[in-house]
Amino acid sequence: MFEQAFKNIDDILHKDAGCSSELDYTEQTSWMLFLKYLDDLERERELNAQLEAKEYNHIIAPEHRWSTWAAPKDANGSFDHNNALTGDDLIDYVDGELFPYLKSFKKAAENPHTIEYKIGEIFGEIKNKVQSGYSLRDALEKVDELRFRSQEEKHELSHLYETKIKNMGNAGRNGGEYYTPRPLIRAMIDVIHPSIGETIYDGAAGSAGFLCEAYDYLRQGGREKKQLSTKDLDTLQKYTFYAKEKKSLAYVIAIMNMILHGIEAPNVVHTNTLAESVQDIQPSNQHDIVLANPPFGGKERKEVQQNFNIKTGETAFLFLQHFMKILKPGGRAAIVIKNTFLSNTDNASIALRKELLENHNLHTILDCPAKTFLGAGVKTVVLFFTKGEPTQNIWYYQLDPGRSLGKTNPLNDNDLEEFVSLQKDKKDSDKSWSVNVSDIDQATWDLSVKNPNVKEEAPLREPKEIIADIIELNKESEAILAKIRELV
After folding, report:
1. Cα 148–Cα 127–Cα 88 angle in degrees, nearest 5
2. Statement to judge: residues 75 and 113 lie in one domain
3. Do 139 and 226 share a domain, yes or no?
């Protein structure tokens, strides 16, 4: 049912002049889903208050509630078409009244960690792009069919929403910007092995895939599958996940994605992470775990570079410095970065590798195959490190799924099973090996992936040998042609 509803909503938006791509479909579906979710949440809270004989103060005023404008019902509980706004009236109300009202929540909210503040931020960032009030009415009716009441419903909706994000990533020019393959994220979380009470941070959140997967991992009791107490669940909801995201659309999607996974008021801040000086990061801002796939290929301006000790225009390298600083001593990180980081010979890259090796234990490097990220033409590696102790040995694993990856043949959990298994004891195999830091060139700190188990390709032959072979082959060809002539 949910899947069909999502398809129907996409079909409606596809026909509207204001929506032109998967990015628009996801953005517009997001704000409608958010308001429907909010309405269900308020109903649930009101019922709980009634059971406890308490008064419930609604977040949304009566005239702007979902049940008033989006899905009015008649006495029988059926959709009341006679009292439902449609056409130009609906567009005028949404653009002229609803969005400005919801945007005003940001100023009125007590602090940024409340759901009221999130409402204000979301509706200050996005606009209704649906131009036809009839299309919008149809879409609202489809969204109203969705339910957020049970954990199972939320789980199914979150799964479908993830699929939308994946499609959006494939449709956009920068696929990796929105979507990190979930099997890769799950393997990274498995190696990092978070536990309840630790804080988990992503300063380049995108659609918040890392935090959603980490939430699912911990919600299910982690590696040990332990039963969670009420206090554990409260800690998971409020004091575990922290994120920052610069782009408006990604910010909105991150919040919606976390909500659908079960986090009611996500700690996602809409900000440019790199605008913060690493010198200003205090111990109170630091986190136990960093999980991230920072954007690569971007170029940052000089004033942004001034916030960092090692100056570089490469966005991903600035993010890496931010992550190193924001980790608590003893904190653990798993970060996706393009593989050229391991071997670049510019001063910034060399200095950054030196800093990483001297002040962090870079214990594992996972080398990912080409096309791990759909739409991104670069090869990537995952760096796993612990802050506060120098690196002595690096364990490398060269991921080879034995097939060419692509849209119809993406990375799956089975592909990463061996990596996760061998990593626990850092065992050597055909695909894995260890390197002692004392063997690394200390002038360049080159960390290139060089699998010692793979035989080197045969050396290039001398030109004289090649010419001799060509002459020999020509002689053989002449002899064969002479025989054919005799037969004709």
Report:
1. 90
2. yes
3. no
Question: H or E stretch including 417?
Answer: helix 413-423
Residue whose entry in the numeric block shows the structure tokens 């960690």: 113
Q: Are residue 337 and residue 409 in the same domain, yes or no?
A: yes
- Please list, in sequence order, all residues whose beta carbon lies within 8 angstroms of the beta carbon of residue 136, skipping any fewer than 6 positions away: 90, 91, 94, 128, 130
For 119-173, what is each residue's pLDDT tens digit? Answer: 998 898 889 999 999 999 999 999 998 887 777 777 777 778 877 777 776 554 4
What is the H or E stretch that residue 45 is in? helix 22-51
Pull the structure tokens for residue 36. 């429907």
| pLDDT less than 50: residues of the chain | 172-176, 457-458
For the chain, what is the radius of gyration of the CA atoms? Answer: 27
Tokens 């449709």 appear where?
A: 171
Assigned domain for 82 exists: yes
The pLDDT value given to residue 375: 63
Q: Which pLDDT does position 66 carry in this prediction?
A: 95
User: What secondary structure, in 3-state letters, does 126-178 show?
Assistant: CCCCCCCHHHHHHHHHHHHCCCCCCHHHHHHHHHHHHHHHHHHHHHCCCHHHH
CATH of the domain at 130: 1.20.1260.30
In the block, residue with structure tokens 């669940």: 233
- Shared domain for 89 and 214, answered yes or no, is no
Same domain? 18 vs 105:
yes
pLDDT of residue 456: 56
CATH number assigned to the domain comprising residue 295? 3.40.50.150
3-state secondary structure of 336: strand
pLDDT at 170: 59
Q: Where are the alpha helices (DSSP H) in 327-373?
A: 347-359
- For residue 292, report the phi and psi dihedrals to the nearest 5 degrees: -160, 155
Domain that holds residue 96: 2-149
Give the count of domains, the chain. Answer: 2
- On whether residue 281 sits in a domain, the answer given is yes
193 vs 26, 163, 280, CA distance in Å? Answer: 32, 26, 29
